[in-house]
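Table S2 (continued). Query chain:
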Amino acid sequence: MTLPVLAQQPPDPAAFVGREAFASDGARIGLIRRVVTNRDGVPMGLLIEMEDGAVLVPFQQVSNRQGRVILPLTRDEAEALPRLPARN
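Corresponding output:
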């Protein structure tokens, strides 16, 4: 008898909050502060706090490998992203 193969469930986006984000080259990028969703609650991006401000990375480009949140960017590419203005 063959058992059915169960599809692997994607990780819960809320579980990313508070975790470290890493570049594709292994460098630490920053701390994930928020999952940004659209009006329907579908994850659209991750707000990542870096040393000099926050950046927004599209959620579809993020992977969760070996317990690490990996961005499809190198450290240099992440450093070049525009910073979001600080909220008061």
